[in-house]
UniProtKB/TrEMBL annotation, chain A:
Transmembrane residue ranges: none
A GO molecular-function annotation: oxidoreductase activity
InterPro entries found in the cross-reference section: Cys_rich_dom
Chain ranges of the Cysteine-rich domain: 3-84, 129-210
Source organism: Thermus islandicus
Protein name per its UniProtKB record: (Fe-S)-binding protein
GO CC aspect terms: cytosol
Length: 236, 465
């Protein structure tokens, strides 16, 4: 099995270690990993802000970059949904967009649904983990159980968290266009979180936002991308 | 109601700064509604209900001319006087004539968002009519001179303390009077009004075309009283409120109740079939004002017409984490929250409502809650796309997006940007966008090396893919 890793620009710049973890994990599971080096951004920031003419060329080039791949795996629910669901709004009826939509997976979704992996190892034994459901992973891709299954089966205690499925307030440009509302949302989300040792999620944007907010509030909590934690689950 | 939607970003920030209590009250109340809704949805095959309701509404909307004419005919046969109002001014003309003909001095009013759209209360006051809002929440905000902050719970933003203070000043009740005592005071005032008003005003949840029946849902009994005690009843009905058959109520009444409050059915449902007949008690005259106010224009919009399925249940407001931080006032128009963000640009103009489609993280919770599956996130994207196309977004944003596209369209430029991000000190406090980020979250720190550089090492160290 061979997959192309689409790391996405935000993880490339801010969570490079998540990319390393994803590569190691996939390789350890017997998957060959390509990293098409011409990849940049899927275009989501422009698309979500209404700049479809700026987003369209980025969608087109992403389709070209990944045209040859059998599977495209992203350690991001939001960017995966952009490619899977929204490219077809930018490029209605486009054959390449339809083809790519069929082979795009968020990392944990790929592990569970395609590889059929249920257990990675016991590397998270006893760890109290808070899992933030990124909105697009949850509501646009339907990824709810996959990350929880992999974390629990690695020995992690996934904490009950009243607001785990609530939006954290990142929302891309939203976070800087309406910063007061964005921060109030993060505060509400974090106020309902207790006893966690690690906070994780599929999406780099949410994590940057939540980690930043924790930092500003002087709270210490390890915040890592899901890919990193899944590699720890495997490697111990 | 005059729209102040353009001020949304400033007003939202100001409210969070100056009235932190609103956030607390709204969060508490909406989460309560939301839990009830989830429980109530879980008790029934909700996806079938939603799909069916969507199909019925789509059918009515795509055959609206037929059902409007049928409804008008049936209403007239029932002895109801039917008026058509394209604009608020048309509606005002109808109401003014009725008020003057009957010499109305006092009116009782059931909660209706459409009458907010039409600014009915200011008109009545100008005509010298004393107006009583009779829904308890509406009555509270009428006393305070505020607009509703939620479609179903208009006073959702008020704390008990604020209401106690208001009643203390107004009616001399003790500052620690329990809610029941306050409700008793309001009840007494409103009973007087019900018994002496010559005119009752209402909206309608549904208008059944085949029978000409108005259906109104409520929990307090005030709608029943407002529409049956006064001599004259005037109902304002938006064109989108039609249902084809009486039997459709069997789906829409419980679906609306479950979506709005998590009830199986509202405490009261009034089905109004015209004025009192011989030997019956009730109003001598019933008027239905069918109101357009932007609806037929929205119906012709191939990308946004589905918004008209809305039942005004408020479920999307309760589900929305953005709405929950501020309540409805900063949105600056009758409809707030996710449905307001996609309905207001359609009813007003995008220019007037420009910031509202951006009042969302596109989290999708509204779409999951909506009983008629209005694709709100997709509609938000459509309105944003139009805002850009119409040149309503700020110039700096357009320039930034263009630069973003240029960098991302070229791997070479992207690598250069990546180097600059690490090599140059980020002007964290200079660029307004960066400042907006760092103020609340601390400095942005990129990884020591981007992954695309680490990939080389991974490839070499671990022997290729």
């Amino acid at each position: 099995m061979r997959v192309a890793l689409f790391l996405t620009c935000l993880a490339d710049q801010f969570y490079a270690e998540a990319g390393v973890a994803a590569v190691r994990l996939l390789r350890a599971l017997g998957v060959q990993v390509d990293f098409p080096e011409d990849q940049t951004c899927c275009g989501q920031p422009a698309f979500n802000a209404g700049y479809w003419d700026e987003a369209r060329p980025l969608a087109k080039r992403t389709l070209r970059v990944f045209a040859e791949a059998a599977y495209v795996v992203l350690p991001s629910g939001s960017c995966a949904s952009m490619v899977k669901n929204h490219y077809l709004e930018l490029l209605p009826g486009d054959r390449e967009a339809l083809a790519l939509a069929e082979k795009v997976y968020e990392l944990s979704q790929f592990l569970v649904r395609v590889l059929g992996v249920k257990r990675l190892g016991e590397g998270l034994k006893g760890k109290k983990v808070a899992y933030h459901h990124g909105c697009h992973a949850l509501r646009e891709l339907g990824v709810r159980e996959e990350p929880l299954l992999l974390l629990r089966n690695a020995g992690a205690e996934v904490l009950p968290w009243e607001a785990s499925e609530e939006c954290c307030g990142f929302g891309g440009l939203f976070s800087v266009k309406l910063p007061e509302v964005s921060l109030a949302m993060a505060d509400r989300k974090l106020a309902t979180l207790h006893e966690a040792e690690v906070l994780t999620s599929t999406d780099a944007g949410c994590l940057l936002h939540l980690a930043g907010r924790l930092h500003r509030k002087g709270k210490h909590l390890r915040v890592v991308p899901l890919a990193t934690l899944l590699w720890e689950a495997y490697a111990g | 109601m005059r729209a102040r939607a353009r001020l949304y970003p400033k007003e939202a920030a100001r409210l969070l700064r100056e009235k932190p209590g609103v956030r607390e009250a709204v969060t508490g109340a909406t989460l309560h509604f939301e839990r009830n809704r989830l429980r109530a949805y879980g008790e029934v095959p909700i996806e079938e209900w939603r799909e069916r309701a969507k199909a019925v509404k789509d059918h009515v909307l795509t055959h609206l001319d037929h059902y409007l004419e049928l409804a008008e005919r049936r209403l007239r046969e029932n002895g109801v006087r039917v008026h058509w109002a394209e604009t608020p001014e048309d509606a005002h003309r109808v109401l003014r004539e009725i008020v003057q003909r009957h010499g109305v001095r006092r009116a009782v009013k059931a909660k209706s968002m459409l009458t907010e759209e039409l600014a009915v209360n200011p008109l009545l006051q100008a005509l010298g009519v004393e107006v009583y809002e009779t829904d308890l929440g509406e009555y509270l905000i009428q006393l305070l001179g505020e607009p509703p902050s939620h479609i179903v719970g208009p006073a959702i933003h008020l704390s008990l303390e604020e209401i106690q203070k208001l009643f203390h000043q107004r009616f001399g009740t003790p500052l620690d009077a329990p809610p029941e005592a306050l409700a008793q005071v309001a009840r007494k005032v409103l009973r007087e009004a019900f018994l002496s008003a010559e005119l009752g005003l209402s909206g309608a949840n549904f208008l059944v075309a085949e029978t000409g029946t108005l259906a109104l849902m409520e929990n307090e009994g005030n709608i029943r009283l407002s529409t049956s005690l006064p001599r004259v009843h005037v109902a304002f009905v938006g064109l989108e409120k039609l249902l084809p058959r009486f039997a459709d109520l069997a789906l829409f009444l419980p679906l609306t109740a479950r979506a709005a409050t998590g009830q199986r059915l509202s405490t009261f449902v009034s089905l109004i079939q015209g004025p009192a007949r011989e030997g019956e008690e009730g109003p001598e005259e019933v008027h239905v004002v069918l109101v357009d106010h932007g609806r037929t224009a929205l119906l012709q919009d191939p990308e946004a017409w589905e918004t008209l399925r809305c039942l005004r249940c408020g479920a999307c407001l309760n589900a929305c984490p953005v709405y929950r931080q501020t309540g409805g006032h900063p949105y600056g128009y009758v409809y707030s929250g996710p449905i307001g963000a996609v309905l207001d640009p359609g009813l007003l103009s995008l220019e007037e409502a420009y910031p509202l489609p951006y009042a969302s993280t596109l989290c999708g919770a509204c779409y999951e809650a909506c009983p008629v599956r209005i694709p709100i996130p997709r509609l938000l994207l459509t309105w944003r796309h139009r805002a850009v196309a119409e040149g309503l977004t700020p110039a700096w944003e357009g320039a930034a997006m263009k630069a973003f596209r240029q960098v991302m369209a070229s791997p070479a430029l992207y690598r250069l940007f990546s180097k600059a991000l690490r090599g140059l000190p980020l002007p964290q406090d200079l660029l307004p966008l960066l400042k907006a980020w760092t103020e609340g979250r601390g400095p942005l720190k990129p990884s020591p090396k981007p992954f695309h550089e680490l990939w080389k090492e991974l490839e070499e160290a671990e022997g290729g893919p």
